[in-house]
Structure prediction request, 384 residues.
Amino acid sequence: MIQGGFGLYVHWPFCLSKCPYCDFNSHVADELDQARWRRNLLAELDHYGSKTKGRMLDSVFFGGGTPSLMPPGTVAALLNALGDYWQVSDAVEITLEANPTSVEAQKFADFRAAGVNRVSVGVQSLSDDALRFLGRGHSAREARQAISVAEKSFDRFSFDLIYALPEQSMGDWVGQLDDALAMAGDHLSLYQLTIEKGTPFYSEHRDGRFALPRDDVAADMYEKTAEMTSKSGLPAYEVSNHAQKGSECRHNLIYWQGGDYVGIGPGAHGRLTLDGETVRTEQIPGPANWLSAVSKNGHATRFSAVVLKPEQCEELIMTGLRLTGGIEAARFEAQTGVPLADGVNRNQVTALQQANLITWDETRLAATPAGILRLNALISAILC
Prediction:
């Protein structure tokens, strides 16, 4: 049994336009050979499915890019092939990321018929002014309509919002979050705007064309978010993710808890246990080069390497402390062969306990709410 679960990630790299804050592997294309894309995704699925046959599949996640631009028939073909390789859990979570344009929302019923049982809608804001700043191609009205369609089409749905925007006040965010909580299902993803290198926002922010809220203001917004979502029955289970108990995104938990996942499609990453070793994989990112490589070789893996134990321990600590439940010592040791107490700086752990920034009782290591606000520094201290 693979500790942390087993999932499949499918990357669809195309968008209608590139958002100025986005550093994901996404591309704009006028025309696509959809039949070839379907064949090649199925070929890469076969390549990795054959290496991992017989495992219990807990989740599938279609990410991007904009997977709601995929033909539903391609989604159906991939999902119909899963049983050729794996045992599919009766409770398998199959998520597709979607944009809330009216055209894409009209396809929700087709995606449901294809086998998708959960949708994550990239709303990002319920303010038209903010949506224009973020370079989004939908309006606040379309966003609300898409949430309504998602609720009617799927048993489970989530949507994303970005906050701590330039000139956004606490009152603005509280009002928007109130609206969001009134429409929410069992899950919300709420992210503070971050400026990533290589994006248009990076150069605009560097050149002083806009400023983000001060750190103390952003921290107040974060704490208010945690307070409001908790009172509404959607407490944080990760830094930016909130859910009813039992409705956490299973696929993301696989990432954060060190489980295995196959990654197919341009630029997709994977992590697999093969012959007793943890192997990290990465696919060729460029869509055209990915297509060519799969047509020639049956896959487009550009990188595959064994993850050494020290690196695995570090990764599990970095991702596990993002979770409010923290890191289970028993799982950590089962995955790495190293007791959790030996994978951290014990003197620093003691000091951070005394400062009320972490909790540690020999069975679980977790950041406190105060520690979450200083998570990067906390992780650096624990790992030094």
